[in-house]
Amino acid sequence: MSKTKKSNQQIAMMVGRNTIFGNLFLSILKLFAGFFGHSQALISDGIDSLSDVFSTIIAMIGVKLAARQADTSHPYGHERFECVAALILSFIIAFAGIMIGWNGINSILDGSYALKEVPGFLAMGVAVVSIAGKEGMFWYTRYYAKRIRSSALMANAWNYRSDALSSIGSFIGILGAMLGWPVCDSIASVVICVFILKSAYQAFMDAVSKMTDQSCDKETEEAILNTVSQVEGVARVDLVQTRQFGSRSYVDIEISAPSNLTLLEGHNIAQKVHDAVEKEFPEVKHCMVHVNPYFTVPPQKTDPEK
């Protein structure tokens, strides 16, 4: 188990470091192009990318805390610290989006957009680079988030997807301003705000679901049931229940075994089920197995009066 945790932590740190460098590069590029290319939308996009650096650092801290071994204060482990990090990330993402949207709305209402210079091809080119870069970060982070079942990384992945959509908004705003509608650049900032808030909501709900004992998906439960039913000695699978615990999950299983087995034989079958589930599903933190008696012939009811 500890080896798996360490491996997952190393993967999360690698993804975090790589995306930090990518976000720093894109934020500097977008802020430079926004200022010198006269695009408020691109400046807003650059600030959002800069906030992603701090968001990624928080995600890395959450993953590191979640990988700590169980102790007397937390006998079930620290996996939910990752969910806490994801919740913090969702609020940071939402705050950044609200500030960007507020600036865009003020620009529209006071008419200051009309006094700004029209964005040039520099801003448009950087917006295209940003779309490709952020979409690439989304798929890269999402792949590893699903692989190690990390809430914090998945929150960051959706953040990058919203950034890619934001950059599309920047591109459209810049293009509209270049075509003679300068208000489009400010409107793009408001659109960016909406995408960022949607990303914050997705990150928030993902973290909440993993902190409130939500079950695993149906495909996982069916796969567990199939694994258990193939274990030698299992006559019937009576129950499979799962609950998510941060990036890990707990499994409760009830099986039926022949009623004429000894206690030791029933225990050995339960142990085989336990080992098979934890081997086939590394995300399972612990599997509890209960054995019920299976009667090939229903037991005879005794008459209480005799």
TrEMBL record:
Q: How does it sit in the membrane?
A: Multi-pass membrane protein
Taking every annotated instance into account, which residue ranges of this chain make up the domain Cation efflux protein cytoplasmic? 217-294
> Membrane-spanning residues where?
20-43, 49-67, 79-100, 120-141, 162-181, 187-204
The record's section on InterPro entries has: Cation_efflux, Cation_efflux_CTD, Cation_efflux_CTD_sf, Cation_efflux_TM, Cation_efflux_TMD_sf, CDF_Transporter
Is the keyword Lipoprotein in the record? no
**Highest taxon of the lineage:** Bacteria
Q: Which residues form the Cation efflux protein transmembrane domain?
A: 20-210
Q: Which family would the database say this protein is a member of?
A: Belongs to the cation diffusion facilitator (CDF) transporter (TC 2.A.4) family.
Q: What is this protein called?
A: Cation transporter
User: Which organism is this protein's natural source?
Assistant: Candidatus Egerieicola pullicola
